Amino acid sequence: MLGNFVYYNPTKLYFGQDSLKYLNDELKNYGKKVMLVYGKGSIKKIGLYDEVVKILKDNGKEIFEDPGVMPNPTLEKVYDGCRIARENNVDLILAVGGGSVCDYSKAVSVSAYCEEDPWEKYYIRMEEVNNKIIPIGCILTMTGTGSEMNGGSVITNTETKQKIGRVFGPEVFPKFSILNPLYTYSVPKYQMVAGIFDIMSHLLEQYFSGEDDNTTDYIIEGLLRSLIHSSKVAVKNPEDYEARSNIMWTATWALNTLVAKGKTEDWMVHMIGHAISAYTDATHGMTLAAVSIPYYRYIMPYGLKKFKRYAINVWNVNPEGKTDEEIAKEGLDRMEEYMREIGLVMNIRDLGVTEDMFEGIAKSTFILDGGYKVLSREEIIKILKDCM
Amino acid sequence: MLGNFVYYNPTKLYFGQDSLKYLNDELKNYGKKVMLVYGKGSIKKIGLYDEVVKILKDNGKEIFEDPGVMPNPTLEKVYDGCRIARENNVDLILAVGGGSVCDYSKAVSVSAYCEEDPWEKYYIRMEEVNNKIIPIGCILTMTGTGSEMNGGSVITNTETKQKIGRVFGPEVFPKFSILNPLYTYSVPKYQMVAGIFDIMSHLLEQYFSGEDDNTTDYIIEGLLRSLIHSSKVAVKNPEDYEARSNIMWTATWALNTLVAKGKTEDWMVHMIGHAISAYTDATHGMTLAAVSIPYYRYIMPYGLKKFKRYAINVWNVNPEGKTDEEIAKEGLDRMEEYMREIGLVMNIRDLGVTEDMFEGIAKSTFILDGGYKVLSREEIIKILKDCM
C-alpha cells in the first residue's frame, strides 16, 4: 500500500548537449560572488573549467575558487570551504563535478553560517538546518549518486574514522543542475561501470522491501530495464550518446526521492559496502557489486514474492512450469550474468578484503530494519564469506 | 534519443489518508483572503467542504466562495471568477474538486489581473503570462487530468464554440496539492472508469511517438502496468485503497511533464476525442476509449517497432514464433479485451455520434504531426467509421 508521504522536489534541471548555456539565465538570480567548487582537475582536462569561468566572467561575477574536493570529501575540507564561503560572503556555490563535489557543496552550504560545530549538529545529531543556507547550482560531470537533485551529503571525518551520510530537506537541494551527458564521456570505464551499479543498487535497495503492488515498484522496474539496456550499450561504446543520456537521466530519478515514496526501503547493501570501503578504500559502486549477489541470494527466501516478481518483470524469466524459488533464483542468476558482462568486480577479495577483516567489517556495519530480514553480525560474516 | 529539455516541477504534494491536515501548514504561507473554488457540490456530500471551511476559519482566513464550476469550465464563468478574485484582492485560490476545478482556477489565476482580454491573450495567442499570478492550492477529489501538478487549463468559449487547452509554465502550477485517495471513492463508477482511461490515454499519447529506447518510454511502461493492474482491482472493488491510491499517483505522473521529457508526442486520440465531445458532450475519457483501438490499429503499420515493444513489455505477449505484425496485433487485442473488462464505452455510436456528424468532426479535429502518421481528413473519417 502507498503510505502517507510528502513529495517536493524543486530542483530545476537543464538536460542535454546544449544545457550549459542556461547557466547564463540562472546566474541572473544570484549576487555577484560565486564560489567555484570542483575536484582534482578533470574539468580542466575536458575544457569545462574554461567554459564555466568565461560564462561567470561574462555575467560580471567575482569567482572564489575551492578546488581539490576528494572522492570521499573530508570534514577538514568542509571547514576550509566554510571559511572561504563566509569570509567572502558568497552568494552562490557552483559545484562542477560528480556526486562528491555536490555532496561537499551541500555540507558547506549549511555549515558556513552554523554557529556551533556543524559536524556535531548536522551529521551526528542530524538536526534541522536553522541557519542561513547558501544556494547551490550544480554542473554534473559524473553520474551515479543522484546528488544533483536530492539532499544527500556524505562526509568523512578522518579523525574519528566516521563516514556519515545525511539527507537534507528540499531547502538544501541544488536550485538548478545542468546535466550534459557529453561531460560523462571522460569518466574512465571502471568508474563508469561502478557508477552504473551504484544507480542499480539505489533502485534495488528501494525495490526489495515491502510486498505491495504499488506504482512505485512499477516505476523502479521501468528504470531498471532502461538501465540494463543502456549500460550494455555504453560498455561496448562509451560514446553512445543515447545510452549515456539514458544512464544519466535514470541516475537522477533513481535517487531523487520519487521511487521511495509511500514504501519502505532496505539499504543493507549500501551499509555493508560502506563498511568495506572504510577498510579498503575500494570504489563505492564496486563494493556494492561485490556484495549484492550473495546478499540477495541470502535474503531471497524472506522476500520470495518480490524476488519472483523481479525475475519476471525485470529479467524476463519465463515462469511456466517452475516453482517460485526456481523463478526467483533464475532472476538472480541472470542479474549475476549481466553484472559479469558489464565488467563489475564480483568478489570482495579483488577489492582488498581479507578474512581477518570480517569481524571488523561486520561490527562497523550499520544494521537497518527496512528489508526482508534484519541481519545479525553472524549473518553479515556469513554473507562476507560468500562474497570472497 | 533523449533530446534537450528543461524539467522543473515545484508543486508540493501531500499524499495519503492524513494529507488534509497539511493544509494548516500551507495556509501560513499566504495572506488572509482565500477564494474557495469548487464544483456542483459533491464536496459537500462527502463532508469535505465542512472540513476545509473549518480549517480555513481556524487559521483566521476570510473566505470568498466561487462554487458551481462545470465539467467543461466556460469562459463566462472565468470572467465571473476574475471579478471575485480582483474585487476582493484574494491571496490564494483554493481549488477543491477534480481537474475542471483546477483548470478553471488556473484560468482565474492568470486572468484576474490581465489588462486585456485574457481569452485572446492566453488561450488564442498563447502569450507568456506577464501580469500578477494568484497562487493556487489544490485539494483533489477526482483523478485523471493531472491538473494538480501541471500547467494545463482547458476552457470552453460557448459563444465561439471553442474548447482550448493551454499549458502554462511552472509559475502557474499549483503551489501545493493535497491528494487523498479516499476522496475519490465518491466518484460514480462510470466516471472512475472514464478517468482511468484518460490516464491511460495520456501515457499512450506520449509513448506512441519516436522509435527510441529512452528511459522515458520505460517509465511509461511501468506506469501502464501499474494502471492496468490497479484498475482491474478498482473496478471489482472501488473501495480498495491500494488500487485507488495507485491510480491517483499514476494519474499525477502520467501528465506532470516527466514522461514527455526528451521525446516527441502524438495526442491525436485526444484531438479526435475533443472533436467528438463538441458534437455530443460525451464524457472525455469515454471519447478517448471509443476512438483508441481503431486509431491505434490504423497507425500500427507506421510505428510497428513501438507497437511490438508495447505488446511485449506492457501486455506480456510472448513473441516466440510470431511476426512483428502478429505480436503488435496481439498487444492491441489484449488492450481491447482489458478495456471491455473494465467497462469502457467501445464505440462512438453509444456516445451519440451519428454518421452525418463525421464530416464535421473530421473538419473540427485539430491535426497534429507528432505521431507515426499525419492523418488526412479522409483518414479521420475512415477511423470514425471503424469506431462505430
Automatic annotation (TrEMBL), chains A, B:
GO terms for cellular component: cytosol. Keywords: Oxidoreductase. CDD domains: BDH. It is an enzyme of class 1 (oxidoreductase). Pfam families: ADH_Fe_C (PF25137), Fe-ADH (PF00465). Its EC number is 1.1.1.-. Residues 10-181 form the Alcohol dehydrogenase iron-type/glycerol dehydrogenase GldA domain. Signal peptide: none annotated. GO terms for molecular function: alcohol dehydrogenase (NADP+) activity; butanol dehydrogenase (NAD+) activity; metal ion binding; methylglyoxal reductase (NADPH) (acetol producing) activity. The keyword Cytoplasm does not apply. Residues 193-387 form the Fe-containing alcohol dehydrogenase-like C-terminal domain. This is NADH-dependent butanol dehydrogenase A. It comes from Thermoclostridium stercorarium (strain ATCC 35414 / DSM 8532 / NCIMB 11754).
